[in-house]
Amino acid sequence: MAAAACIWLLPSILIPANRQPPLFTLAQVFVCGVLVGFGRQGIDVLVTRLLGAALGLPIGLLIGLVAKHNSICQGAQGCFQELVLGVGVLTVLLAAVMVLPALPTTILWRHGTAGLKPELMWPRPTSLGQWVIVAVVGTVLFFGVLLGLGIPLSAP
Predict the structure, then answer these.
(1) pTM for the full model?
(2) DSSP code of 69?
(3) Are 4 and 32 a contacting pair, CB within 8 Å?
(4) Do 125 and 134 form a contact (C-beta atoms < 8 A)?
(5) How many Å apart are CA 15 and CA 126, to the nearest integer?
(6) Other CB atoms closer than 10 Å to residue 135's CB: what's the count?
(7) Section 8-32 average pLDDT
């Protein structure tokens, strides 16, 4: 995962995004997807590794902006919007694109789809009280992000 993240990180620091040829970006997607796809991993570990590798691009872009002394954002709400939309959305979209070469690589490496079952033990709510806590926390986070991004809660 670290090698794949560096494949995104280093070029984004050294070469401005508008000067990178599209074929180079396509090669980055392919190489990173194949690197992340190697290994014995379930689908949840694969997605986690894809997200970690994809995080290299927005971090590299931020480092490149700071190195050129460009202002990254204006104000607290502007910074929150930039970070959530820039880092979060870019990372998820890049991971979704990198899954195209990573999933076939994992299937070939594991000799089939049987090895893609989830490996991580995610805690599951078992009682009604735990489900209520999950619902309340999820609702607060959802509306908190909406308010932080400045998205109105009512229709115009």
Answers:
(1) 0.71
(2) T
(3) yes
(4) yes
(5) 50
(6) 11
(7) 82
